What we know:
This protein has one helix at about 80-90; strands spanning about 10-15, 20-25, 25-30, 35-40, 45-60, 65-75. By secondary structure, the protein is mainly beta. Strand 3 and strand 4 (about 35-40) form a beta hairpin. The chain starts with 10 loop residues before the first strand and ends with a helix.
Amino acid sequence: xxxxxxxxxxNLNIINRHKxxxxxIKSVIAFAPEEVKLSTEMGCLTVKGEELHVISLxxxxxxxxxxxxxxxxxxxxxxxxxxxxxxxxxxxxx
Length: 94
């Protein structure tokens, strides 16, 4: 595994696809019973499933616990408005 200096820790712990605890969470972008979008230390994380709900959230510590059926985890780049705008402008001038 590659050692990346000055990177904060981001961990996922999923038990039997029905309970999860994550750390390294910066913020919750959206939360619905079928989809959770999180901003993490490693980019945007989308969790898809059914009957997802929060057990606990500690934004100061960057920790989230939830349960429900987990069908998929998808990472993408940070989706903050400033990042999206800069990527769009960059594509215009290529």
